[in-house]
Amino acid sequence: MATVFRIDFVDKYNDDIWLVKLLLSSEDNKLLKELDTYLKAEIKTNTTEVDLGHFLLAMHEYDRASHYCKLVLDDLPANHDLTCRCYNIIGECYLWKENYDLAQKNYEMALKHCDLASAAVTYNNLGLVYKRKGSWTLSYQYFEKSLEIYSITRKPDDPLIATTLNNLSHILLHTETYDKALSNLDKVLDIRLKQLPLAHPLVGATYSLLGDAYLWNGDYKTAMYNYDKPQPSILVSLTQPAKDNYEMAIKCYSKSIELKLLSDSGDFNNLSTLHNNMGATYNRLGVYEMALSCFEKTDEINKKITPIKHLNIAACRLNVGRAYAIKFDNDSARQNYYQALHTFETCSETDTNRLLAITYFYVAELDELENDHANALKNYYLAKELGFKSLPSTHSSLLRYINGVERMIPHLLKETNQLEKSTT
């Protein structure tokens, strides 16, 4: 009892049996001891009827959790203190199942039965629903409402404030409000380092999101500096501000990976994403061997993920292709881009359109470099259309896609005129 193991791998043996290899974690692992102590302290002394629903939710048993909470609701008297919590759990079950309308409906029901403190949690949850729906303005407004209530009901370093600030930062990153996002994430990290053990998953996740923020801020600074230059982005100059952001991203990704490994985390999905993002950052810095080394680790980790995470595989192929493209190995780049496109098209995740847009944009750049202006125009146009579906209208990436289309039109007009002259 109470022995801690690390999951090494999970393999499907047949339809009914899965093989799980567990490794005994060291009893001297200080980080795990701290996490164990923290989690034990989190367990409430006084239990309620709703706790089982919460545990089922934590186990990803969404149907059972929502069914149980509905049974509890049937037995609760009107305006009971637990009614709000039941609706919030049911809403979160639907959120994880990507049924956003039902998630929203249950969160709105929760609001009708909330006190002030519980309303902050529910507003945060509604913000998550609207974020998943792509309603960024509404999402931002709900996160702001949550923070307003927390400022009254919680201390400034409360972990719940960190959670909502973290969620708000996602919206700021999406709208390229990077300075404010980085400021918020610094506050999130400060709170979590004070309130949580170092091995807690949220600490590593904060470093990971900080890495994303620095990476995208570097991309934004590069895009703005080279905005009016009539050439593919693969040929643009790397500015010092962009380089500084990329180097900070590397530090944050490295720290997140370190914490996951030290805590014996079996979260292969996040490890895969971290190595892939770090490789993408090395691509920007022109350190190709380090980038390819990161992508090799990503491929190794992806083999351990069950069921297969196609989005991770495609994202890695996209970045491997970019590494070859920067080295002007166009054939290898194109091969990896096409593999990424094929795999992305089989994915159902909400981020697929954004990643497909990037891939078509990169393919278009290869076409442009090879003076295949017709295919370049087609692929820039596909990137632009997918960008409109997944990005704000002022996003720098979307502006790059539009610029690509506009760059190709004069070339095609010139080639068409030359063809007409040659046939007359």
From TrEMBL:
Pfam families: TPR_12. TPR repeats lie at residues 120-153, 272-305. Transmembrane segments: none annotated. InterPro entries: TPR-like_helical_dom_sf, TPR_rpt. PROSITE patterns: TPR (PS50005). The keyword Repeat applies. The keyword Repeat applies. SMART domains: TPR (SM00028). Keywords: Repeat, TPR repeat. This is Uncharacterized protein. It comes from Didymodactylos carnosus.
